[in-house]
Write a structure and sequence with these properties.
271 residues; alpha/beta; TIM Barrel; 8-stranded parallel beta barrel; two-stranded antiparallel ribbon; 12 helices; globular
Length: 271
């Protein structure tokens, strides 16, 4: 691996081989998502616990301070919305020149395996890899499924993840599944990061599926809504970062979370 590529990968993935990517790219197809109406305010207290920030160029320019030293993974696919005919109908929205101009550490792109736009989105990935490899920019492939949540099983996710790796993705972001997730990870020759998935009911539920996924080989998470839409975003993220980088159990992670909530409550009472 060339030094530039290796350096960018090392910025996102810490020396322990683990990572926490904070995504705030939801607006590119959802519009002003709840709790992301003002993304700059949302991320300000969370950035100290993030290993990288996943966002679009528009939000990067408008809401992320130029002095931010958290690596940026730039969302570079889009072109469809929740009110459109098909979320899978995406193209590449951002040129390699723009990626370099914005000093992004990596880029992220969705692929929709099994959809009407499978070939289109896979070729988007291949073309992006061709462009980015010339400049040492890692590509993270996102195995998206649009509205078809029933596709989130090990067989589908394993196929989609492996295809992304075969086309040159340096990292694959995919969904956790309760059965067979170890096969998904072990069948993918590049690092796998767990996608956040649907909003969970409790923090414990979040901690449990992340802990299970990492015990089965994932190197980290790309988790957004289950943090910044949570009742206590900072304690949740602080606890998850500790789980990932300190190999905590679910119980230990809950202890970190509860202690952080107590500190937050005490601080609020002093104001």
């Amino acid at each position: 691996m060339d030094w530039g590529m290796a350096n960018r990968m090392a910025r996102m993935i810490k020396p322990d081989g683990k990572c926490y990517f904070l995504p705030i790219d939801h607006g590119y197809f959802q519009g002003p998502t709840r709790c992301l109406e003002r993304p700059g305010e949302t991320i300000a207290p969370l950035l100290p616990y993030a290993d990288a920030l996943f966002c679009t160029r528009g939000v990067l320019r408008a809401a992320v301070p130029a002095g931010c030293d958290v690596p940026i993974i730039l969302r570079v696919s889009g072109g469809s919305t929740m009110v459109g005919a098909d979320l899978a109908d995406e193209g590449v929205t951002t040129s390699i020149e723009e990626v370099l101009r914005l000093n992004a550490t990596a880029v992220g792109i969705s692929v929709f395996v099994g959809s009407e736009y499978e070939s289109q989105t896979l070729m988007n990935l291949a073309d992006l890899v061709n462009d980015c490899e010339d400049y040492g920019i890692p590509v993270m492939a996102v195995t998206a499924v649009g509205r078809e949540l029933d596709k989130r099983d090990a067989r589908f996710l394993g196929l989609a993840s492996r295809v992304c790796a075969e086309l040159g993705a340096r990292v694959v972001k995919t969904y956790w599944c309760e059965e067979g997730f170890d096969k998904v990870v072990h069948g993918c020759p590049v690092p796998v990061v767990i996608a956040g998935g649907p909003k969970c009911e409790t923090e414990k539920e979040v901690f449990e599926f992340i802990h299970d996924g990492m015990s089965k080989g994932a190197i980290g998470v790309n988790l957004g809504r289950n943090v910044w839409q949570a009742p206590h975003p900072v304690p949740t993220m602080k606890a998850l970062a500790a789980m990932i980088h300190e190999n905590l159990s679910v119980k230990q992670t809950l202890d970190v979370f509860n202690a952080a909530v107590a500190d937050e409550t005490a601080a609020a009472k002093k104001k």
